[in-house]
Amino acid sequence: MKRGFTLIELIVVMGIMMIITSILLVNYNKFGGQVLLRNLAYEVALSVREAQVFGISSRAFQGGFSTGHGVYFDLGSSTNSFSLYSDADGNSFFNSASTEWVKTSTLGRGYSIDRICVSSGGSESCNIIELDILFKRPEPDAIIRASTGGSFTSYSSARIVLVSPQEKKRSVLIESAGQISVQRYDE
Fold it and tell me: Does domain 7-184 have CATH number 3.55.40?
């Protein structure tokens, strides 16, 4: 009896390996995109949480401890960035980068903010252009205000919907009570 592989056995094993490799490569891009989208949603949620911690902590900014901190989204100017800011002038709104501390975060290549939805009393509206979420001492509650292009209105919750290049979606939900969560988004 001879030991070793026959040519047919070698071809069969190579064929099986090629099939398994091609299946893995096809699904890797899909899996990797979902992981990146989930990580991006957690980054946005972490930025909102960072504003909440800064807003209720005793961190001094320009000599004062009553400065609020917030996150500002403007889909009219960019669907792939948002700003974390300190409300230096105390007007409870985002102004320009020249008067307030601002950290601008940019989403990854191909990823964007698909829409912003707000809710008050159970009905959700998704035609929002600007969203301002502010946290002020001593309350951990969020002050959620949004605009469709005109004046700002207060809401009880906001949902930021993120989309991947493969059209997969995740959302970050911010409640006025201060709760921040990442969820799947199904239309």
Answer: yes
